[in-house]
């Protein structure tokens, strides 16, 4: 949520900042702004809308070699130029960009009013700029002035402050990510690793409560309280360089089609086929720990929650350990019972989702242990858990998550076999699952060669008032995932239900011609799903059926889309793909902004 990019070095800052914002734009795209300092003056340019709009207010050239930039996802205050970052202090001495929420901003604002300072925006962030400026006036150094206001603030921040009369940039992190990139004679600051990859692979992940003072040739990191800490430099994974659009029309299109290779990366070195199981090195669990595990809880939001629901079923099926998936945003507030012997899996593509981070903190607070199932290396969730697995999808830039979903499901499948082979799962059955997993990338490729009548399905969907998605067993979360994709990028109202529940309520929605998407692979619940299809057809619904190739159930669909047959426990890896394509093509057909759907952001870093 919101992207921050900053530069302090020898090169002209402006093009670097704009490029940095462009790469961070998926984090928020309501409005954008840049402030530049060249030693004599500070200038600021802001505009409503996407980074592409910035050129309307920016000079073609500017000599400044230092600057800060921001792309906003609005929380406090509407989408206006006044609410756009950077925010300037009352005296023009301070420019500030902020990601997060200052919960007590009203109190901080009242203190400013008492000092005769009026805020010009409705944001919670602006108050910080004025308080820092007041601190400078009181004789504090830039670090001290930033620390002083943050010691009074409650909430979350990743922020970067630039000064008119001081060379250094001051950054701080508490709950919102901030990464420093170290170049030679130049330093970068970014909300995530993407924009840094083209400049340097040496990065410092700030921790919560850190404050960093940055000049062109160095960085000093301390805690908010003042004590200095060692700035650990991490070498960035090469994968972060591969985030270009290339020949694809959209990142979503690219990422859907990257799934076979992403899946290969996820399973590489993790399949022990002859033993009939997989092994995730980061899940260091002894036989004794596994047999004593009372239950598994899987946590995630959105697409990651849908993967968690599939993981729950796979673990129960293969390992016979009671498992339950929780929506992270609900978890903490529901007074969860946390058993220190239980396994908690925190599932997240970005590794920055505030709701999931809050759930992990709750687990830790109550003596539990959490393992991350995360894509972004070095992200907050990965570091907070300190144990777990990377799903290795590579950079996912489209707001609609696709390749992360299939890799989460693959990683959870491997984990389920790892648990299962300690007891319930036979070697032969485990081997069949592992073989299926190894075939899955080829089967996805085979599907892409012949994706079926997606456009016919899209014609039915685009004109619909609403769309019902149905699936049973492992296909129920797939139905939810298909509905989420279509809703979030095509803005078509969708409802997803376990197929058997349809007759308990949603059937009332059906009219002549209502489109119903049914996911019915050839598994043990197919016959029951078929009954739901008949009930829908009897009410005039048009069925878009996702089924396995060669299955006679194809006759039941008005539009039938075949995916290659696979092991019944692996069907989500294939059945989700036509749903992703349908959502993508519907959004394109309706002229939506596919990669940056309205009101959304890629990483939701506020609770
Ligand atoms: O980064 P995370 O996996 O933690 O993100 C969770 C959700 O915000 C995310 O899956 C969201 O629902 C996507 N836009 C779905 O496509």
Quick overview of this protein structure:
The protein is an alpha/beta fold. Helices cover 34% and strands 22% of the residues.
Features:
607 residues; alpha/beta; Glutamine Phosphoribosylpyrophosphate, subunit 1, domain 1; Rossmann fold; eight-stranded antiparallel β-sheet; seven-stranded antiparallel β-sheet; 17 helices; 34% helix; 22% strand; binds 5-amino-5-deoxy-1-O-phosphono-D-mannitol
The CATH topology name of the largest domain reads Glutamine Phosphoribosylpyrophosphate, subunit 1, domain 1
CATH superfamily of the largest domain: Aminohydrolase, N-terminal nucleophile (Ntn) domain
Approximate shape: globular
The count of β-strands is: 27
CATH architecture of the largest domain: 4-Layer Sandwich
Identify the bound ligands: 5-amino-5-deoxy-1-O-phosphono-D-mannitol
Counted by DSSP, the helix tally is 17
Please give the domain count: 3
Low-confidence stretches: none
Q: Nearest-angstrom radius of gyration? A: 25 Å
Distance between the termini: 11 Å
The CATH first-level class of the largest domain comes to: Alpha Beta
Explain the layout of strands and helices.
Blueprint: E1 3-8, H1 13-24, E2 31-37, E3 42-48, E4 66-72, E5 87-88, E6 94-99, H2 105-114, H3 126-137, H4 142-152, E7 157-163, E8 169-174, E9 179-182, E10 187-190, E11 202-205, E12 210-215, E13 218-223, E14 228-229, E15 234-235, H5 251-257, H6 259-267, E16 271-272, E17 277-278, H7 287-292, E18 296-300, H8 302-319, E19 323-327, H9 328-331, E20 343-348, H10 354-365, E21 369-374, H11 380-385, E22 388-390, H12 403-420, H13 427-449, H14 454-462, E23 467-471, H15 475-490, E24 494-498, E25 515-519, H16 526-538, E26 542-548, E27 559-563, H17 572-589
Helix pairs in contact: 2-3, 3-4, 6-12, 6-13, 8-12, 8-15, 12-13, 14-17, 15-17
Bound molecules: 5-amino-5-deoxy-1-O-phosphono-D-mannitol.
């Amino acid at each position: 949520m919101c992207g921050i990019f900053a530069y302090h070095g020898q090169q002209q800052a402006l093009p670097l900042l704009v490029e940095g914002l462009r790469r961070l734009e998926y984090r928020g795209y309501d409005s954008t702004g840049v402030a530049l300092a060249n030693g004599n003056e500070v200038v600021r340019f802001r505009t409503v809308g996407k980074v592409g709009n910035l050129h309307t207010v920016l000079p073609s050239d500017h000599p400044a070699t230092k600057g800060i930039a921001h792309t906003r996802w609005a929380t406090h205050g509407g989408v206006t130029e006044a609410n756009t970052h950077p925010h300037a202090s009352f005296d023009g001495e301070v420019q500030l960009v902020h990601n997060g929420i200052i919960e007590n901003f009203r109190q901080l604002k009242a203190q400013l009013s008492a000092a005769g300072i009026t805020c010009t925006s409705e944001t919670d962030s602006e108050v910080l700029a004025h308080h820092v400026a007041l601190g400078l006036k009181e004789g504090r150094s830039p670090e001290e002035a930033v620390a002083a206001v943050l010691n009074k603030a409650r909430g979350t921040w990743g922020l970067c402050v630039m000064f008119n009369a001081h060379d250094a940039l001051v950054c701080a992190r508490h709950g919102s990510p901030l990464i420093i990139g170290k170049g030679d004679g130049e330093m970068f600051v970014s909300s995530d690793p993407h924009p840094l990859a083209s400049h340097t692979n040496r990065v410092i992940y700030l921790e919560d409560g850190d404050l960093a003072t940055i000049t062109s040739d160095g960085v000093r990191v301390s805690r908010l309280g003042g004590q200095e800490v060692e700035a650990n430099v991490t070498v960035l994974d090469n994968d972060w360089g591969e985030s270009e659009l290339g020949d694809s029309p959209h990142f979503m299109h690219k990422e859907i089609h990257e799934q076979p290779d992403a899946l290969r990366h996820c399973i590489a070195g993790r399949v022990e086929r002859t033993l009939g199981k997989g092994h995730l090195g980061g899940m260091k669990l002894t036989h004794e720990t596994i047999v004593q595990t009372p239950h598994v809880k899987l946590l995630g939001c959105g697409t990651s929650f849908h993967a968690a629901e599939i993981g729950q079923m796979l673990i129960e099926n293969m390992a016979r350990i009671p498992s339950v998936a929780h929506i992270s945003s609900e978890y903490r507030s529901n007074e969860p019972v946390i058993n220190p012997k239980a396994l908690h899996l925190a599932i997240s593509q970005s590794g920055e989702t505030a709701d999931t981070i809050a759930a992990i903190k709750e687990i830790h607070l109550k003596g539990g242990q959490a393992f991350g199932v995360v894509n972004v290396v070095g992200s907050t969730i990965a570091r907070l858990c300190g144990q777990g697995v990377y799903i290795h999808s590579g950079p996912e830039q489209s707001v609609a998550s696709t390749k992360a979903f299939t890799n989460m499901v693959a990683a959870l499948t491997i984990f389920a076999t790892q648990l299962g082979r300690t007891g319930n799962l036979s070697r032969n059955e485990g081997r069949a699952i592992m073989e299926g997993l190894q075939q899955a990338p080829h089967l996805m490729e085979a599907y892409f060669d012949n994706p079926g009548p997606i456009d016919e399905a899209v014609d039915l969907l685009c004109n619909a008032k609403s769309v019902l998605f149905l699936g049973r067993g492992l296909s129920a979360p797939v139905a939810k995932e298909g509905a989420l994709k279509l809703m979030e990028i095509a803005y078509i109202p969708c409802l997803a239900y376990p197929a058997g529940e349809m007759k308990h309520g949603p059937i009332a929605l059906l009219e002549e011609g209502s489109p119903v998407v049914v996911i019915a692979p050839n598994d043990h619940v197919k016959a029951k799903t078929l009954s739901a299809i008949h009930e829908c057809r009897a009410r005039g619904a048009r069925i878009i059926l996702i089924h396995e190739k060669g299955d006679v159930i194809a006759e039941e669909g008005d539009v039938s889309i075949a995916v290659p047959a696979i092991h019944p426990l692996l069907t989500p890896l294939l059945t989700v793909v036509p749903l992703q394509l349908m959502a993508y093509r519907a959004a394109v057909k309706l002229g939506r902004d596919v990669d940056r759907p309205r009101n959304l952001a890629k990483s939701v870093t506020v609770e």
